């Protein structure tokens, strides 16, 4: 067996019942075969891959809090500090009932290469909890966030580990988490990103992942002589990433016609009304409302229960909800309907089989670790502004974001060509991300 196969097998053996983590490791290592085989002796001697797939530190902790009925609730908190070769651990916190250690590890592992691709000095980490913020009162959210931070504060700091938002963690949660950190540590520092503007947040961070996805997609399309103008776009999700992907797609002249959540999806052939979608998101967070509210307010829209976004005829598909939401049958349907490009706004939304099917059918494919890197890149710009004790205007951040995303595409494209995988942006992203991490790890000795 090759070194790659050995390490994949070891990962499965050492981390049982963590299918998403196995999937992420397999996807990355398989596509790095050409680089790893060329350096196998050296990497093996230094156990490079074994070190890469083992987090530097993995924290699991109890989070007790009191609900509005006076009942004590107990959730589990996680922070996986995966790799700090390039810089402080950086990556979001996810609050969702599906969260477990394997999901946090897959996200943290992906984050290493994503953060490397940004060209900025950030290592990889991720965290979260199985707490469900939906339908909770503000007081309950605050109680949970304060308890979560009362444990987490011991392990994070502006130069060690800088969490941010992800599914279920937006501005409100970041505010409560930051307040508790400051109260315990007495430090006003850039320990979290995604903060509100009034206490050190960056303009354009809210928009950054969705906007960045479109800057990347546009660069990928242009490199293949395709104009986004007039293209029909299917988007999944109705949260932070989806909303700003839809907004930027419209600004660039595309026509996004769908969005979705965990219960159903919207088809709006006249184009999604993004301001209405923003309002529905707010209502959903507070009242557990559903996307039906969008359809009720918008005569051109149809609401469908369950899954189905990928059955809509489109030129471009942008999965922006969650992992494994675009499977082989969805890929077959997209190809049958003439899709030309898929770019991932979410983390690992496309299964390995679906990705291969799309690529085998000449669909341009932007992997999340490259195409959704705009969020974390802008978080690093927020860290830079915090260090400077200064705020940049929206235009300056947005322009930097655009340049970063265009550079990511150029580097991914170049790596793919250099290794003989032209137009395979999955291989290109993994190689370009991996090379910098390996350089940094090698330079720092066996740690
Ligand atoms: N926020 C950021 O800056 C970044 C986020 N990402 C990734 O983008 C994706 C979306 O994150 P974000 O928009 O921030 O999160 P939000 O919480 O704002 O929105 C998540 C959206 O996805 C839907 N969703 C979540 N879980 C599921 C599920 N199991 N099945 C179907 N739909 C689901 C939600 O529906 P419902 O409301 O019904 O739960 C909601 O519409 C995630 O994969 C995240 O890791 C990647 C890079 C950066
Ligand atoms: O901005 C950040 O640090 C978090 C981004 C993130 O979690 C992601 O890229 O998936």
TrEMBL record:
The active site is at residue 126. NAD(+) binds at residues 209, 240. This is Glutamate dehydrogenase. The keyword NAD applies. Keywords: NAD, Nucleotide-binding, Oxidoreductase. Residues 202-445 form the Glutamate/phenylalanine/leucine/valine/L-tryptophan dehydrogenase C-terminal domain. GO terms for molecular function: glutamate dehydrogenase (NADP+) activity; nucleotide binding. The record marks 166 as: Important for catalysis. Substrate binds at residues 90, 111, 114, 165, 379. Belongs to the Glu/Leu/Phe/Val dehydrogenases family. Gene3D superfamilies: Glutamate Dehydrogenase, chain A, domain 3, Leucine Dehydrogenase, chain A, domain 1, NAD(P)-binding Rossmann-like Domain. It comes from Methanobrevibacter smithii (strain ATCC 35061 / DSM 861 / OCM 144 / PS).
